[in-house]
């Protein structure tokens, strides 16, 4: 059995199928780990959701910021709706409710304790242990799966609070948690989030650090697989694997194969 972690698909289903053909994915014995952002901007968001959902236990995913955007729209928050929005096809589908229910059941972080490996969309705040990250994720997931979901999805958008000490109200805490898991790139040494810069590492202001290079990181021996940051491309350190290689932007769609022999990269062109 092999695990294949796959970067942001964003509705690029044809390239996903091309990648699965290349790695000879067998749903009877292999498993796919998706870094989130299954939908939006690409041409086949609806078909991508149906495909991944149809894989059942052969695939798991975490929630990305674009997935949350779809959930917010499905809950009635249309403030950012555009006439040509790629998510309209999902919202008008006959199986819309079934797909939305399935998406609401997905997690913000998934951790395999045996492999000491976690899957997340954007990252894990450097001041959080993996244990704490999972605890906070379960709190946010509980709200999304409750009768408070619609209210929170209306209040979800925003950059504040940017630091945990300022998160005093319930929805402020939830917004901070979700922003860390789905939008974070750079942080200050204090742990404050920055949402302005997404430049290549090394080109950002010196006061900012990529979350995974913060010296106070509490990941220890745990490793994190993430997407979200296409400008990073494939990046591997002793702590992280970055997987978003910009398929949506005519880059590549990449998979990280994890098995007993270690880790191996696979990718296909998205031209």
Reconstruct the topology from this structure.
Blueprint: E1 3-6, H1 13-23, E2 31-34, H2 45-54, E3 59-61, H3 65-74, H4 88-91, H5 96-104, E4 109-112, E5 117-120, H6 130-144, H7 149-155, H8 170-182, E6 186-188, E7 193-194, E8 208-210, E9 223-226, E10 235-236, E11 240-242, E12 252-259, E13 262-269
Parallel strand pairs: 1-2, 2-3, 5-9, 9-11
Antiparallel strand pairs: 1-12, 4-5, 6-7, 6-8, 10-11, 12-13
Helix pairs in contact: 6-8
Biggest sheet, in brief? 5 strands, mixed
Order of helices and strands: EHEHEHHHEEHHHEEEEEEEE
Strands in their spatial order, largest beta sheet: 3-2-1-12-13
Instruction: State the share of residues found in helices, binned by percent.
Output: 25-40%
What global shape is seen? Answer: globular
Query: What's the CATH topology name?
Result: Purple Acid Phosphatase, chain A, domain 2
Summed over residues and divided by their number, the pLDDT gives a mean of 95
Briefly note the structural class of the backbone: alpha/beta
Distance between the termini: 30 Å
Number of helices: 8
Q: Which architecture does the CATH hierarchy give at level 2?
A: 4-Layer Sandwich
